[in-house]
Amino acid sequence: MGALEELKKEVASDLILKKQYEIETEIYNIAICLKRIRKEKKLTQKDVAQRTGLTQQMISKIESYNGNPSIESFVKYCNGIGINLLEVLLNYCK
């Protein structure tokens, strides 16, 4: 059995790991959704950075869920692409 298969088996049998995996997956899916919306609006990461005061590196972190961006950064990002975070959660990420 490969390392990935062993990890999947371990996660499936550990309820805490399983819940953490589900949370991380959900946050990742939101980040992917935000990136998709930004691209649909034909905005670059630089455009969003200029509109929000966030760095382009932070924009990249939000879109890749790399690091641990704050909820404030998520809200600023959403405002920068012309939506609010609640809209994303309710309408866009179905």
Approximate helicity band: over 70%
Number of helices: 6
Structural class: mainly alpha
Query: In percent terms, what proportion of residues is strand?
Result: under 5%
Report Rg. 16 Å
**Extended strand count:** 0
Task: Tell me what you see in this structure.
This protein is mainly alpha-helical. Helix content is 77%, strand content 0%. The protein contains six helices and no strands. The chain has helices at 3-13, 15-40, 45-52, 56-64, 71-80, 85-92. Helix 1 crosses helix 2 (15-40) and helix 3 crosses helix 5 (71-80). The radius of gyration is 16 Å and the shape is elongated.
Give the helices and strands, then pairings.
Blueprint lengths: L2 H11 L1 H26 L4 H8 L3 H9 L6 H10 L4 H8 L2
Helix pairs in contact: 1-2, 3-4, 3-5
List keywords for this structure.
mainly alpha; 94 residues
Outline of the structure:
The protein contains 6 helices and no strands. The protein is mainly alpha-helical and 94 residues long.
